[in-house]
Amino acid sequence: MRRGALASAAIEGNTLSEDEVNDILDNNRRLPESQQYLEQEVRNVLDALTSVRREVWESDGTFRLSPEWILGKHQELMASLDVADHVNPGEYRNIPIVVGNYRGAPAEDVPFLMDRLCTWINSILDDAASKQSSAPDQAFFLVFFAATLAHLYLAWIHPFGDGNGRTARLLECAILAHCGLVPYVSTNLLSDYYNRTRGRYYEKLDAASRRDDVAGFVAYSALGFRDQLREQIRTVQAHQRVVAWVNYVHERFQTEPSTDTARRRRAVVLAMPDGAELTRKEIRYLNPTVSEMYDGTSDRLLRRDLSKLIALNLVDEPSPGRYESGIWRMDAFTPRPEFGVFTPVLERLSSE
Question: What angle is formed at CA 159 by the lines to CA 156 and CA 161, rounded to 5 degrees?
């Protein structure tokens, strides 16, 4: 959520880094007064995302987009910001607006266009809901289609004096969050993608407007969402891999006597980094805990410990005198469809 919130603000010029945002939120760091608006912008996006999550939790499974909903979210996004006189949080603009070479819809047409946009998006979402049980893949496509079109068309209408981009990206996230087909943790990935590819993002928005290339914007968003989902899955799998490894190590030691020797050996294997071949001297100094355990002991004791860990299939000796963690065994439980069912890890395990 934080990364997505910062990304949405960064597209509009916010210069805070992710570390700075974490420092502000976790450690109550205060920025100089001249920069506090940067913090407020990010906090507003976070608050709006949190309100969307609350709506999802409290909803009965249906989501109806309305002009009132959009106006309310715009008010949240612009709260406590020093805005220009023509910008009224939670209200449509009443003046013409030009952004770069793009001219927004006439102010007098904005209420009608926003009402029509909501009706159109709701019709797509109704179609998706009718297919959710029988054809969830089609339902997902329709929801994604509705989310990206809502983003694009709100940006085209440009209903507000400021905050249109943040509102459009929040709307996209909300549609994905309410559909029941996307985990909430994944609904805000597109904002990060748009920020990472900011130049292309503006190019695709411009091409959709100038050349009527709506399909190009949807395809650009779909490609990014796919890649962001894959990256997120890899992150989740990496965390699961470590958890599985720790549990596996403790399980292997259940049959061992609960002694200082067993605790020392367990500490060694859990401290060994993934994929690194280490000498016995390097293992001695893996971390302060391991160093203290082996302080003043002989190399023979460490060799005996490593031999036991090898026998337990927790440590490998790929070459004489060099050792590596056996955490790779956890990869046998990681889905890898590109390799089929019989993965290289299973092949390696079968040879043991």
Answer: 115
CA pair distance 283, 325, nearest whole angstrom: 11
CA distances from 329 to 50, 246, 262, 277 (A): 39, 12, 21, 16
The one-letter amino acid code at 74 reads H
pTM of the model: 0.84
Give the Cβ contact number of residue 47 at 10 Å.
Answer: 14
3-state class (DSSP) for residue 149:
helix
DSSP conformation letters of 31-57: --GGGHHHHHHHHHHHHHHHHHHHHHH
3-state secondary structure of 8: helix
CA 119 to each of CA 17, 67, 115, 122: distance values in angstroms, whole numbers, following the listed order: 38, 10, 6, 5
pLDDT for 264-299, tens place per residue? 999 999 999 999 999 999 999 999 999 999 999 999
Cα separation, 260 vs 293, whole angstroms: 9
Look at residues 126, 113, 216 and name the one whose alpha carbon lies nearest to residue 155: 113
Concatenate the DSSP letters of all residues of 172-188 into one string: HHHHHHHTSSS-GGGTT
Three-state DSSP state, 152: helix
Task: Please provide the DSSP assignment of 184-252 as one string.
Answer: GGGTTHHHHHHHHTHHHHHHHHHHHHHS--HHHHHHHHHHHHHHHHHHHHHHHHHHHHHHHHHHHHHHH
Cα gap 139→124, rounded to integer Å: 10
Distance between CA atoms of 68 and 50, rounded to whole angstroms?
18
Cα dihedral 203→204→206→211 (10° resolution): 120
For residue 338, is pLDDT > 80? no
Q: Is 309 exposed, middle or buried (0-12, 13-18, 19+ CB in 10 A)?
A: buried
The SS3 of residue 320 is coil
Taking only the tens place, the pLDDT of each residue in 85-115 is 999 999 999 999 998 888 999 999 999 999 9
pLDDT computed for residue 208 by the predictor: 95
Q: What is the DSSP letter of 318?
A: E
- 67: tokens are 């002009």
